């Protein structure tokens, strides 16, 4: 998902734009976004759905209730398949199996290097099935197939290889004491980890959560989003083929208020990690507090500023700001959704940002060269359209877009608002869709104040060539990630997480291991030590 | 002990044809500039296995030129860590795929047990490469806490062109423990394997190329220490030398580094490690461990527990056990799966060990077992145990590097700490006791780089090891083993209006 790769992918894809969709030539190389592509018959995904049950203790099983729910193709709103619907009883079964695999082994009892090898074998298998997994991901989620196949599945593989490399390098410390004591810390796996992941990056969120938990020797119950249950079941199956013992990773499909809540309140779950909305994150934390006080990692919403300074190369800034917002249909928690532009370059930036949005090709995500697919589901689709109306009503200028695209599926026009004020809803709330809001600023101090004036604190983009400006903004912004002249650089090694109501804890990188380790201090009195 | 007949290897394993006998420079196998070759000898039979290109100064120059180019302009240090990891994982898989052939090469070249090569040496070699592959994208610097309006951080940069000089006792593991971390760090390198055991290093070079390690990154120069080794140590364009071998040669390496470009050196040298047995142990178990400690790999191991200190309460009982158990050691062709003890690596070592045994006999120690060569072709020596050894005897002071155990008696914890430390070496120590306080006190008191409590030779990818005192400095293995191939660069810049400092 590194920005470099995305940019190169997108620029490579531009010559492949489907000409049929491009109706009007607006001059200076600008095309209006494709409309026809959205109306065409959807391309049949080159994959079959093989797994639609719960994966508990290494076996695919029906839900205890026998219930199922449909998962929909966001291109059409039609049913892909029916999936077993996990509820409290299934969570109980999954936790019992994870508990057993943790308490009795073999997972935490085998050597770290054996865990490394199983994870490496898994990564190799996923790499082998790259295209099939990518197709399933696109079908269920609506994200571009090129993005799934060339960026996300390879990134998934890299994440697992990265965490495989950690398994045998989890180090505690030996520690000096004030007296004759030998002190050491043991970093022990925490136990059964409950993990709840969202629908916007189903596979990558799987890797961010499951990778470090398993590397540290924990066992896992993973609840996937009800919108996107399919890819997790396929890769979890491959994980077992790679030698993962049963019970180590259990995957329960289902809904938040039922399966998700059961996992959060479970007395036998030792750790919870959640990625999703801030509102749900609050519930997760509450349920944990009310049950067994399990520690919680939260990665929640954002309203991240993308700050274009006066010295910025405007063309580059426009392209990156566009990417920062519209990538993945705007469905990124760290989307650069408040584009602050210095007044000196504001007009030029606006004109070019609008032109760039107009050029964005929207259509079937399986089609090569398309830049934007449908939103995930009807609920999100309606919510985005509501925010667009709110933007217009509150007095922002709608530069382009503003409506759905086509009549079928959840396609939304790339939308740009200018003259946005800080107190407008579209500048305050997380829209989670292809809606860029552009705000003007004058002074560095002013933009720092305004950028920080949000309950969120997930990320920020800074576009400047000035070293001092970059350093000042970096330290002043209250966010978990600052991207300077870049955005969405998501290497396995780089920690990610939020300040304020964007969450707590960090995922990825060495920092993520902390989420899944207990620290045990061991103090032994010494007799006649040679040194202290 | 039993001596099995020698030289009927074909009934156990088919010896592979020797495929690689030339220098490996810039991705190609080439003859030496001088055209010279040297013989590598099968220590089982004293016969020539193959003639190997003999690298000299000119060849080292060519290899360094290739490594320099690969470092200064090539892709290797510029690849993201995850890409170096990918290639190194492939390298490790190829080692696994060629396990039997590599094990056979080390057996004919060094007289090492083929059975252990297949389950220890070669798998460990692959594991080590895999371990460091996993470290390639985990090389972290720090951001720093400055005491004024400054932002500062450290970058851990690859040190550059590395010269590795490796010994003959563990050709495969030494190769991977030097090459693995240097590759992960993004260095390029010239490896000089010992002249006794050049075969597997050349094979590894071939596998590295197959795995996709770019040309020039890994070069192998076979040859002698006094020529190729010296050329590496004194080369002006090598940024770091990592040497494993004798203390005597280590000193020469460091001198050459000092006299040339002051390149940093890491040395893993000799040892005379104490193996300390307290009264409270299970004598039967510990006697086995002590025999392993002295005779594993025919005693050709720098961390050998060659001074066995036994507390007086169990001394006699312990000797009886040793005498009993050493009889079960089967000596013979290292390809024979029943054999535990093959030939010493070469004539020179063989003669040296025998002369130490004579020293022991003449010096007044009691010969409990062994004490002579086997009456076979090849460099076979019986596992030899001397008892009643005193600290001032030559066999208790010098590294014999052969199957010779010295047993010494002691009374108190304080005494054994003092005697165990009374050596110029400080590589390893074994402490055999279940008393927690004794274990802790002795652990902290012994001046040595590795302490094994109720175990011995517990090596691991993640376990750094190396010496105190004249056993060398810096560490191989673990993340410590990676750090030595890194430069630390501190970067500082002023900042303005920071909301925190």
Major β-sheet of chain B, in short?
A: 7 strands, mixed
Q: How much of the residues of chain A is beta strand, in percent?
A: 15-25%
User: Which pair of chains has the greatest number of interface residues, and how are they split between the two chains?
Assistant: A-B, 32 and 34 residues
Count of helix runs of chain A: 17
- What order do the strands of the largest sheet of chain A run in, or round the barrel if closed? 14-15-16-13-12-17-18
Specify the number of helices of chain B: 15
Unreliable residue runs of chain B = none
Strand tally of chain A, please? 20
What spatial order of strands do you see in the largest sheet of chain B? 16-17-18-14-13-20-21
Mean pLDDT of chain B: 96
Count of strand segments of chain B: 24
Outline of chain A = globular
What does the overall shape of chain B look like? globular
Largest sheet of chain A: 7 strands, mixed
User: What oligomerization state is this entry in?
Assistant: heterodimer
The radius of gyration computed from the alpha-carbon positions of chain B, rounded to a whole number of angstroms, is 23 Å
Decide which structural class fits the backbone of chain A.
Answer: alpha/beta
Cα end-to-end separation of chain B: 70 Å
Q: Nearest-angstrom radius of gyration of chain A?
A: 24 Å
Mean pLDDT of chain A: 93
Organism (chain A): Forsythia ovata
GO molecular function (chain A): aldehyde dehydrogenase (NAD+) activity
Family (chain A): Belongs to the aldehyde dehydrogenase family.
Pfam families (chain A): Aldedh
Describe the structure.
- Chain A has helices at residues 3-13, 36-39, 88-103, 112-128, 130-141, 145-167, 202-215, 230-241, 256-265, 278-290, 314-326, 343-359, 378-393, 425-428, 444-452, 467-476, 511-514; strands at residues 54-56, 59-61, 68-73, 78-84, 174-175, 181-189, 192-196, 219-223, 249-252, 271-275, 296-299, 305-308, 338-342, 397-400, 415-418, 435-441, 459-463, 481-484, 503-504, 517-525.
- Chain A contains 17 helices and 20 strands.
- In chain A, helix 4 (112-128) packs across helix 8, helix 6 packs parallel to helix 7 and helix 11 crosses helix 12.
- Chain A is 39% helix and 18% strand.
- In chain A, the strands form five sheets. Chain A has a seven-stranded mixed β-sheet, sandwiched between helices. A six-stranded mixed β-sheet of chain A has the order 9-8-7-10-11-19, sandwiched between helices.
- Chain A has 532 residues and is an alpha/beta fold.
- Chain B has 501 residues and is an alpha/beta fold.
- In chain B, the strands form seven sheets. Chain B has a seven-stranded mixed β-sheet with strand order 16-17-18-14-13-20-21, with helices on both faces.
- In chain B, strand 6 and strand 7 (150-158) form a beta hairpin.
- Chains A and B meet through helix 4, helix 6 and helix 16 of A and helix 2, helix 4 and helix 14 of B.
């Amino acid at each position: 998902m590194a920005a470099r790769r995305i940019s190169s992918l997108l620029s490579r894809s531009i010559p492949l734009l489907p000409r049929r969709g491009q109706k009007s030539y607006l001059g200076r190389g600008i095309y209006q976004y494709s409309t026809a592509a959205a109306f065409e018959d959807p391309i049949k995904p080159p994959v079959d759905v093989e797994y639609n049950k719960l994966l508990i203790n290494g076996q695919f099983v029906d839900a205890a209730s026998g219930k199922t729910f449909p998962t929909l193709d966001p291109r059409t709103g039609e049913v892909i398949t029916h999936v077993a619907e996990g509820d409290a009883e299934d969570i109980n079964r999954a936790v019992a199996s994870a508990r057993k695999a943790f308490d009795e082994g073999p997972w935490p009892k085998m050597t770290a290097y054996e865990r490394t090898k199983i994870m490496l074998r898994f990564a190799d298998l996923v790499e082998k099935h790259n295209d099939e997994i990518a197709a399933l991901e696109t079908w269920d989620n609506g994200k571009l197939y090129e993005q799934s196949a060339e960026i996300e599945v390879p990134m998934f593989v890299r994440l697992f290889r990265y965490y495989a490399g950690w398994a045998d390098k989890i180090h505690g410390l030996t520690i000096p004491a004030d007296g004759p004591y030998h002190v050491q810390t043991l970093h022990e796996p925490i136990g059964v980890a409950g993990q709840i992941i969202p629908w916007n990056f189903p596979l990558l969120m799987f890797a961010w959560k499951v990778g470090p938990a398993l590397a540290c020797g924990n066992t896992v119950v993973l609840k996937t989003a009800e919108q996107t249950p399919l890819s997790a079941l396929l890769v979890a199956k491959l994980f077992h083929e790679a030698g993962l013992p049963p019970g180590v990773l259990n995957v329960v499909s289902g809904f938040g208020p039922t399966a998700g809540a059961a996992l959060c309140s479970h007395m036998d779950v030792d750790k919870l990690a959640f990625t999703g909305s801030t509102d749900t994150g609050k519930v997760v934390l509450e349920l944990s507090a009310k049950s067994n006080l399990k520690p919680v990692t939260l990665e929640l919403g954002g309203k991240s500023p993308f700050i274009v300074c006066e010295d910025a190369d405007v063309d580059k800034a426009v392209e990156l700001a566009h990417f920062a917002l519209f990538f993945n249909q705007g469905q990124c928690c760290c989307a650069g959704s408040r584009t602050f532009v210095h007044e000196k370059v504001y007009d030029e930036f606006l004109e070019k940002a609008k032109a760039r949005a107009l050029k964005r090709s929207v259509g079937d995500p399986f089609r090569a060269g398309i830049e934007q697919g449908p939103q995930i589901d009807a609920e999100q689709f309606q919510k985005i359209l509501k925010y667009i109306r709110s933007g217009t009503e509150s007095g922002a200028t709608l530069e382009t877009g503003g409506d759905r695209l086509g009549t079928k599926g959840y396609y939304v026009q790339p939308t740009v608002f200018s003259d946005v004020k800080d107190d407008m809803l579209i500048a305050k709330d997380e829209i989670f869709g292809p809606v860029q809001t552009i705000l003007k600023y004058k002074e560095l101090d002013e933009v720092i104040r305004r950028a920080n004036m949000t309950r969120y604190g997930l990320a920020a983009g800074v576009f400047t060539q000035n070293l001092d400006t970059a350093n000042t903004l970096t330290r002043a912004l209250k966010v978990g990630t600052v991207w300077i002249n870049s955005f969405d650089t998501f290497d396995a090694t780089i920690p990610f997480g939020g300040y304020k109501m964007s969450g707590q804890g960090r995922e990825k990188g060495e920092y993520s291991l902390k989420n899944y380790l207990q620290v045990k201090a061991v103090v032994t009195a010494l007799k006649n030590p040679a040194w202290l | 002990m039993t001596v099995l007949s020698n030289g009927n290897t074909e009934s156990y394993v088919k010896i592979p044809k020797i495929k690689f006998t030339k220098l490996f420079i810039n991705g190609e196998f080439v003859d030496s500039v001088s055209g010279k070759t040297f013989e590598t000898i099968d220590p089982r039979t004293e016969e020539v296995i193959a003639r190997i290109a003999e690298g000299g100064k000119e060849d080292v120059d060519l290899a360094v030129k290739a490594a320099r180019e690969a470092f200064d302009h090539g892709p290797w240090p510029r690849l993201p860590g995850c890409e170096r990891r990918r290639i190194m994982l492939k390298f490790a898989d190829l080692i696994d795929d060629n396990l039997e052939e590599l094990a056979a090469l080390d057996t004919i070249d060094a007289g090492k047990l083929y059975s252990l090569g297949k389950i220890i040496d070669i798998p460990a070699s692959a594991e080590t490469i895999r371990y460091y592959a996993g470290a390639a994208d985990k090389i972290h610097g720090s951001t720093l806490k400055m005491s004024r309006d400054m932002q500062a951080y450290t970058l851990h940069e690859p040190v550059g062109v590395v010269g590795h000089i490796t010994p003959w006792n563990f050709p495969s593991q030494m190769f991977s423990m030097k090459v693995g971390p240097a590759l992960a760090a993004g260095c390029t390198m010239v490896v000089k394997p010992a002249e006794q055991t050049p075969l597997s290093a050349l094979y590894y070079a071939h596998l590295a190329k197959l795995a996709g390690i770019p040309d020039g990154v890994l070069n192998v120069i076979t040859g002698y220490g006094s020529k190729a080794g010296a050329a590496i140590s004194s080369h002006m364009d090598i940024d770091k030398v990592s040497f494993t071998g004798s203390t005597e040669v280590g000193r020469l390496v460091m001198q050459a580094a000092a006299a040339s470009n002051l390149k940093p050196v890491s040395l893993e040298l000799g040892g005379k490690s104490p193996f300390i047995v307290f009264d409270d142990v299970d004598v039967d178990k510990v006697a086995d461990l002590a025999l392993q400690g002295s005779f594993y790999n025919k005693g050709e191991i720098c961390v050998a527990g060659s001074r066995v200190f036994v507390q007086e309460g169990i001394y006699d009982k312990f000797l009886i056990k040793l005498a009993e158990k050493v009889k079960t050691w089967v000596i013979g062709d290292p390809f024979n799966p029943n054999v535990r003890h093959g030939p010493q690596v070469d004539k020179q070592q063989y003669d040296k060990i025998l002369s130490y045994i004579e020293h022991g006999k003449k010096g007044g120690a009691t010969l409990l077992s062994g004490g002579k060569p086997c009456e076979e072709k090849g460099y076979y020596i019986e596992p030899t145990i001397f008892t009643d050894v005193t600290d001032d005897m030559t066999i208790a002071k010098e590294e014999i590097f052969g199957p010779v155990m010295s047993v010494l008696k002691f009374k108190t914890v304080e005494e054994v700490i003092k005697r165990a430390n009374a050596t110029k070496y400080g590589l390893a120590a074994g402490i055999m006791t279940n008393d927690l306080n004794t274990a802790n006190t002795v652990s902290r008191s012994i001046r040595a780089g590795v302490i094994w409590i109720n175990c011995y030779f517990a090596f691991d990818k993640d376990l750094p090891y190396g010496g105190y005192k004249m056993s060398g400095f810096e560490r191989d293995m673990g993340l410590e083993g990676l750090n030595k191939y890194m430069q630390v660069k501190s970067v500082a810049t002023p900042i303005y209006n920071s909301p925190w400092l």
